Amino acid sequence: MEIIQVVPDAKLLKATDLAAKRQKVNRSALIRRALHDHLKHLHELELEARVRRGYLAQPQREKEFRIWEDAAAWPEP
After folding, report:
1. What is the pLDDT of residue 66?
2. Any idea of the CA torsion for 45, 51, 55, 56, to the nearest 10 degrees?
3. Does residue 75 lie within any of the structural domains?
4. Residue 53 lies in a domain
5. Rounded distance between C-alpha atoms, residue 52 and residue 46, angstroms
6. Would residue 2 count as lying in a domain?
7. Is residue 68 within 8 Å of 60, Cβ to Cβ?
8. Does residue 57 lie within any of the structural domains?
9. What residues make up the domain containing 37?
10. What's the pTM?
């Protein structure tokens, strides 16, 4: 692990310390977890955007999804 320097403002530092105390971890562990979660979220957003661009470039044709409508319909009583 490498050591980096992060300079938060006083309000953010206080909130970070409070959250770390509640989670029973140290400040560094909390920041690592937050950064990991944020990067994962950014990756998921990029994947969603790629899928969206793919469907915009080549939309599904009706016959590709029509077959599933009968399977997904609630049976009549």
Report:
1. 78
2. 40
3. no
4. yes
5. 10
6. no
7. no
8. yes
9. 10-70
10. 0.72
